[in-house]
Design brief:
Oligomer: homodimer
Helix content of chain A: over 70%
Organism (chains A, B): Pseudomonas bharatica CSV86
GO molecular function (chains A, B): DNA binding
Order of helices and strands of chain A: HHHHHHHHHHHH
Keywords (chains A, B): DNA-binding
CATH topology of the largest domain in chain A: Tetracycline Repressor, domain 2
Protein name (chains A, B): TetR/AcrR family transcriptional regulator
CATH architecture of the largest domain in chain A: Orthogonal Bundle
CATH class of the largest domain in chain A: Mainly Alpha
Radius of gyration of chain A: 19 Å
Number of helices of chain A: 12
InterPro entries (chains A, B): Homeodomain-like_sf (IPR009057), HTH-type_Tx_Regulator (IPR050624), HTH_TetR (IPR001647), TetR (IPR025722)
Number of domains of chain A: 2
């Protein structure tokens, strides 16, 4: 059994690379098989179609996001946690950028995936609120529950729309750089600047500098 | 010539209604002709294909947005102007909601439209910045140029992604209410709350109340 499991994993890994580089729509199962130098039959032994590969990649993506998207347990949040969340979000967006580029198309063509995405989206919004509440409890942000709800929603929309924004705004939408995606994470940090307490301000300002990518740079690279 | 011009206008108007109600992808030129009780040949006399109708609707949309998206001339901006912008944005989003629902699909299938959209997007970002700068000059907001750039970008992304967010998050994505779209405009107002001056705060808080739609309400209707 061992080699078979390995091929399955390799198919998933190679598909992710090709989807990220070329966009999911331009990559067929035949492309994937040719790229891996295996027969289409061998690929179909593991996955009935491209949707099954995408579903597997979405599971990995969900797992990666849910592994970090929760408040720290048993202690107050710190600005260092904020850096950790931003870096983890950047990594997840970069690793699975094909999902963010073509999401409506993927959901339109797979009802089950659309249902899973809806539940994932709801869990992320709840976890995001809990994280922001944690920063309020820790005296890093000063916000009401209504403001937290609106901020979390804006965070979610910016993060899930950023790659698409880049693709519809840039002349050359094929290639995406990690720097361009980092600017999206900066845009999320900016959302909360009006609510940072005086004590936390120097540390959050330093974070802003760390994540700042000039807009022109993000739009050109 | 008069009746012909009238048919042309009726085709555009009927297409807009059907696209908004059913989504552009579900509506063919045959549907439009049948709905208007004219022959497909009559429709093709005016428009070679659906793309031409969409291009015409996009022109109308651009015209509507550009008619209001600029700072007031010869005087300082007021909070009353802010209400005017928010209402005008809500109207444009509601009238052309089909564009916001399926934008990538529309741009993918029409290179010329994608180029026009890119230029439109750049003009809107510049005008948005000029409007926010006007609110700073008028003592309503207190922000640096770097903050204005980031805020304008977040505004653009929230406004252009809101309808899609609703469609991917709600169980029943077919029907969109004006209330649900209004919540998107509220989300934009929230973006600037951290930068409102003490003098302007009561008036901006009143605006927030006016545009607030409970999230649950937006997600269910």
């Amino acid at each position: 059994m061992a080699p078979r499991i390995k091929t399955r994993e390799r198919i998933v890994q190679n598909s992710l690379e090709l989807f990220n580089q070329q966009g999911e729509r331009s990559v067929s199962t035949n492309h994937i098989a040719a790229h891996m130098e295996i027969s289409p039959g061998n690929l179909y032994y593991h996955f009935a179609n491209k949707q099954e590969i995408i579903a597997e990649l979405f599971s990995q993506y969900e797992e990666q996001v849910e592994s970090f998207l929760h408040p720290p347990k048993g202690r107050l949040a710190t600005v260092e946690d904020k850096r950790f969340y931003l870096q983890a979000i950047l990594a997840a967006m970069w690793n699975y950028r094909f999902l963010h580029r073509d999401l409506e198309h993927l959901l339109d063509s797979d009802k089950a995936l659309a249902d899973r995405y809806r539940r994932f989206s709801q869990r992320c919004l709840l976890q995001g609120q809990a994280i922001y509440e944690g920063f309020v409890s820790a005296g890093i942000l000063e916000m009401t529950p209504v403001q937290i709800e609106a901020l979390t929603l804006n965070t979610w929309i910016i993060l899930t729309s950023w790659v698409r924004f880049l693709c519809t705004t840039r002349e050359n939408s094929a290639h995406l750089s990690e720097e361009a995606i980092k600017r999206g994470v900066y845009q999320v940090l900016v959302l909360e600047l009006g609510y940072v307490t005086a004590t936390a301000k120097p540390a959050v300002d330093a974070l802003c500098e760390e994540f700042h990518v000039p807009l022109q740079h993000a739009l050109e690279q």
